[in-house]
Amino acid sequence: EVQLVESGGGLVQPGGSLRLSCAASGFIFTSYAMSWVRQAPGKGLEWVSSISGTGASTYYADSVKGRFTISRDSSKDTLYLEMNSLRVEDTAVYFCAKALVVVVSAMDYWGQGTLVTVSS
Amino acid sequence: EIVLTQSPGTLSLSPGERATLSCRASQSISSTYLAWYQHKPGRAPRLLIYGASNRATGIPDRFSGSGSGIDFTLTISRLEPEDFAVYYCQQYADSPRAFGQGTRLEIK
Questions:
Q1: Nearest by CB to B45, which of A59, A60, A95?
Q2: Which residues of A touch B98 (CB under 8 A)?
Q3: Which of A50, A72, A87, B89 has the most CB atoms within 10 Å of its CB?
Q4: In what order do the strands lie in the sheet with B63-76?
Q5: How much is the mean pLDDT over chain B?
Q6: Is the pLDDT of residue B95 over 90?
């Protein structure tokens, strides 16, 4: 059974940093691209970042480029999102999601999300 | 950058009726790279359709997707009570892999 479990969310001040983790199980981690998607309060889904199965290719939304870094550790079957220079507008539930294939594609399994609140 | 515009913003229908949701792209995209998701409050999003017309595993056949170029459609043939939710299209042809703004399907 595929499982994705996010952790690392919490309250942080503007300008601060946070690292989200997504522990994956039930599938061959390196065979699938992974992504982070967020939903701000009262808003729709926003794609944040994706990484290929090998980790060689990464992609970012303009709103987070230069501040967020996506990575993956195949020895731990874990996806990460390092978030720096956080802004109030980064407040959201962050979901990790597994792609259908090794390259970035539609996302067939999702975690339950972790809440990030950026506030002073 | 490809922008997806969904319509209508809100759709009010009754169980048993047919729902037609639209997703229009700002430029032509291959149908290979268009997906639809269902999202309910407090839940993880659920993949319904990928490649514009392929149902994901376990998705009932009352859900169907169609379209090409810039116009794509999600159809729910006969609404069940559990289908009332927010629906998003997403393109993954190019970065940013943006979602549309969503269509809220509510019970009339």
A1: A95
A2: 47, 61
A3: B89
A4: B4-7, B19-29, B63-76
A5: 96
A6: no
